[in-house]
Structures are given as structure tokens and as C-alpha cells.
Amino acid sequence: MSDSTAVIYQQVIDRLKAAERVLAVTHINPDGDALGSLGFFGELLASFGKVATLYCAGPLPKSLEFLPGFSNIITDKNSLSMADFDLIVSLDCGSVSRTNLAKEIANRSKQQFFIEIDHHPSLEGASDLELRLTEAASTTEILFRLAAAADLKVSPTMAQALLTGIITDTANFIHPTATPDTLAAASSVLSQGANLSRLSDQTMRTKTLGSLKLWGIALSRLQLNPRYNLAFTVLNEDDLKNSGADYDSIQGIAGFISSIKEAAVSLILRNENGMVWGSLRTSRDDIDLNRLARALGGGGHRRASGFNLPGRLVCENGHWSVEYK
Ligand code: 5GP
Ligand code: MN
After folding, report:
1. Contact 70, 38 (CB under 8 A)
2. What are the phi and psi torsion angles at 266 (to 5°)?
3. What digits encode the pLDDT tens for the residues 192-236?
4. C-beta separation of 42 from 68 below 8 A
5. What pTM was computed for the model?
6. Choosing a second label site near 181 at 20 to 30 A (CA), which of 54, 75, 322, 323?
7. Atom 12 in ligand 1: which residue has the minimum CA distance?
């Protein structure tokens, strides 16, 4: 750890210890890293003798209910009283807009301090203090280091939450984001009581009949666009509603279609709540999907990024297009 990073870890720890009422938030449509980070953070604060309020706009994938704090996560923003908090911490959000609290955070009072802990590239510099490590494979990898810097005893439940973020964000250590440091962190949390085979069952053997049928629909619509070296597919609102599938299954589809050989980039577009949501994936080093997603108002990582735009997917004679609003 460089000296400057060590200073930031210490500053974060000091802020957490000094705070009285802490709100922790992770991003909308949370994944294993988002909810693993949020759950671990709740436990971290508990070890400092504090209760953190955990917020996520959801929807919360039921498959992740084994994570600590899951049942305490508030999903209804109206039940948060923002003025109550003296510290707000966002985890794994990529952008403040993904907290669903962008206005509240921008309008915070002088007494309210805002910390971002994240492994996404910075978009806006909105926080008072940021612990941002883009070389970390997951936000839980950063929290692992934070716990070590605080000399914290990590319980098996906490260790499992940390491992969840690492294995879901690296797709079981296969993405190039999984560095020797990531594997060392995973090895440490296994020594602290995390259980990799149980976690694989909890994160991989969780697909419902409906979500696998949704995969079938998405795969049946898969097309190649040779001009952009792109494989793409679409899901409309009815497909999603009828299957009852959650965000987890959609991410699974994005990951699966990205294994296609004939294209450099894969894209899944889906219609939900008057918006078109896009998930982009590549395994090529010379392509930066974060830049592409940013041009569309979204963001993410070089190899996995996303965006959402107001509009509707329409199909005419087997040809899909986006109708903008
Ligand atoms: P996914 O395709 O799984 O939704 O997202 C892939 C990556 O892009 C994740 O790291 C996610 O946080 C990021 N991402 C997805 N949608 C958005 C967005 O609308 N804005 C930003 N800043 N990042 C996004
Ligand atoms: Mn993450």
C-alpha cells in the first residue's frame, strides 16, 4: 500500500469512528459486490459499536439474502430521514446518480460528510473523501484492505460477504481484474471462515425456471452486427414480467453472450419502466466500454459497462430499434 493510500484508509476509519449516525448506500440494481459491500459495511460499523442504516433502491435479488444485513436494507427512500445522518458512505456506485440519492447528497448540509468507496473510475468527484482503487477487482477487496488497516477481526459471515463481491465481480476469478492481490485477499478471507463452495452454490445454482427461460428468449434473438463487431440481443418488458426474472439473471445473460467468438463486444438491451437499459461486455484489451457507456450517459469498467436511456424497444419485421422519447 502506498503512503498516500494508507493515509486515506486511516482518514476513512477516523471518520467512521467519529460519526454518530451513518447512512450506507449501494447502487440500484445491486449485484453481489454491491450487497456484499453493504452487508460487510454494516458489520464493520457494528464492530465500532455503531448501527449503520443500509439503503439500496433495489430490486434486491433474493438469491443474495444470505448476506449479512440483507433483511435490514431499506429500499423505500421515503422512509429515510436524510437530515438524521452526519455521515453518508456510498459503496460500489460508480456514479452518485446510481445511489438514487443524488439530489439529497448534492444538497447535504455542511455537517454531513460524504465518502465514496469504489473501484470504478471516477466520474464526477462529488464526495468529501474518496477511497477509490480502480485496480481492485471489487469494492469488497477494498473493504478487505480497510478492515486490515483497522485491525479488525473479520467474522466468517463478514468473510463470506467479502468473498461474494470478489467472486461475483471477477466471475469466479476469470476476469483479468483478478490480480495476485485479489487472490491473496480471497485466500485471507477463506482463512477467516469464508466458504467458497457454499458461495458458488449460493451465487451460481440459483437460477429459476423462469430466468432460464428468459435466457432462452434472449439467446433466440441473438444477432451479429458485423459492422460494429457486435453481438446483441434484446428483452422487452413483457419478457421480463412474464418470467419474473431479476437483475441477476440479466447480468448472467450478459456474461454468457460475451463468450461468443464471432464478435468483439456483446450488448443486451432491455426495456423496463420506460427506459432502455444496456449492458455491454468485452474481453478485448483494446476496447474501453466505459468510454462508450459514458458517451451514452452511463459508465462502468473497460470490459463491463452499462447505461440507461429513456425510450422503448420496438420490433418491426424482426428488426429491433429504439424509439426515443
Ligand atoms: P451491468 O451491465 O451489469 O448493469 O453493469 C456493468 C458495469 O457497469 C457495472 O460495473 C455497473 O456498475 C456499471 N454500470 C451499469 N449501468 C451504469 C450506469 O447507468 N451508470 C454508471 N455510471 N455505471 C453503470
Ligand atoms: Mn463492483
Report:
1. no
2. -120, 150
3. 999 999 999 999 888 889 989 999 999 999 999 999 999 999 999
4. yes
5. 0.91
6. 54
7. 300
